[in-house]
Amino acid sequence: MKPSDLSNHISQWFDGSGPGADIVISSRVRLARNLGGYEFCPCLNASRKREVLNKLKEIILSLDLGQDMFFIDVDNSSTLEQDLLVERHLISRQHAQAKGPRGAIIAQNESFTAMINEEDHLRIQVFKTGLQLKECWERINQVDNLIEKQVEYAFDPEYGYLTACPTNVGTGIRVSVMLHLPALKMTGQIEKFYNAAKDTNLAVRGLFGEGTDAVGDFFQLSNQVTLGYSEQQIVDEFSGFIVPKIVEYEILAREKLLKAKPDMLDDKIQRALGVLRSARLISSQEALFLLSHVRMGVNLKRLEGISIATINELFMLTQPAHLQMRQGHELDPDRRDAMRAQIIRSRLCQN
Amino acid sequence: MKPSDLSNHISQWFDGSGPGADIVISSRVRLARNLGGYEFCPCLNASRKREVLNKLKEIILSLDLGQDMFFIDVDNSSTLEQDLLVERHLISRQHAQAKGPRGAIIAQNESFTAMINEEDHLRIQVFKTGLQLKECWERINQVDNLIEKQVEYAFDPEYGYLTACPTNVGTGIRVSVMLHLPALKMTGQIEKFYNAAKDTNLAVRGLFGEGTDAVGDFFQLSNQVTLGYSEQQIVDEFSGFIVPKIVEYEILAREKLLKAKPDMLDDKIQRALGVLRSARLISSQEALFLLSHVRMGVNLKRLEGISIATINELFMLTQPAHLQMRQGHELDPDRRDAMRAQIIRSRLCQN
Lengths: 351, 351
Hints:
The first copy, chain A, is α+β, with helices and mostly antiparallel strands.
């Protein structure tokens, strides 16, 4: 498999089929691990990095995870290939932009990915559609155990798993969900969500992880504390309490809008669809913004004949690197805007 | 005929059928006249105003202009009826808002209208579709002569026709055209048009005369000087030189856009149509703005199956007083926005 093979279809975890996926688009659990006997990545020279890469690559590719697994040599990938992997959340932007021997291992259906020599020697991630954090945790725990049988992780009896950055020490776990909160945004209550997240030590980010603004009503919410709680506790609190509370707020905001301002709501939804079906040039930011409104329209049953899978697919496939990979070469922003508009039009006018 | 009878159809002069009507929507010539032996309106008391009104009403209604003529008692009309007449350009906003005995006489097809006791005792106007200023002038000259056979106008051998406001003294003529200049606006050249108008002593106004901003790429251009030139000279210069020059600029700007930025142009046109066909709430300003882009799209043959008559009709019929008259009662702005959107949608989705 090559990165370019990914540019025409949606990742399974993003297909909108999971439980509660109208609001919780997807769940992700990530573990940070390092090998004993090696310096952390920031201090590791190129030949030692190569050793770590080869060792982990061989072990992970040999695991039977019930899926074909592919190795991608990130260091020797083109910028476009790297960008495509970032857009699909398979690797981080930092991993794409780093230097030296590094790689990624990706399961065919993209539900599992491992980054080797990112900030830590190994970061493994499991993705699932909808709110399935427990399932992600169970799965990643299995994988982690399988790997741990073959390597010695850097581990301290008092602190737990050691990591390059102290914020990951302990469990090394990060759990996160991708949320679609258009009604909270529309009713001006999104600040409440931000504040609540801050108060409970959660991080809110845009669709593309650290350092990006939340755009188009999409938010990534994740834990910040990895030390002092067990993985199970972190997952349980996130999955059983925090996320359901936010989902409840969003549902209430949607009901309120439907009741108090149905015309305004329909206007926003129908305009968004109208523009998406008409535009000849559209930026990725505007597409995200408009698709968000259409997505809410479908979820609230104010629009018929359009599937969430189609909308999610458009989110993913109209990103800049996806467009260029599909075209087979780089495109200037104007051409991307035209191609994006054309793809959206043809997909949404079929319905 | 009552004002409410007007609210469902377009004025003939606004139907887009005339010569060059893609850019020059309509032509208008207006004459200001006052009766000898009466004070000018600002100094005329109510009973003398009543005399002037009755006298002019009787004379004008008796003229054979080849059209049924209707008198409207503006003083006793409802605000909604007055607003409807203003929206149709049949009377001025000042005439609607004035006090005391005053009226309007309107030809069935709205090509001729007379205001009695506006700023002057009599203001007569002739409208035609497209660039037909000479035809307007010939027509209004005939009507003026017919009236002058029956009354004595206030006239000074040196200055000409005397008027309440010195800016109208002399010929008392105002010639104007309603222009659609979307390409000059889009290419940022509209300032040139404004400056050229200023340099040649022309007034640029919005679609609704004095004191309104030009909105949605529509401009009303008229002469300001009425003294020192004959009517014929004013009409000839306007019709033969000034307007063709502006039309030429607009055509050049359209050609330039088509050549240099066809995608951008199509994007604007298609988005405008998409929003008009989708919106559930739309303000009159936004409707004007979007209909303007669609109008250009039809004129540039970038859109098919929509007629200019339909678009012009929507400009006229979706104005606030038209909507309310059609509904039979007053509507708050939200309801108007919903009704406007509904009418636009049903007319543009038929095509």
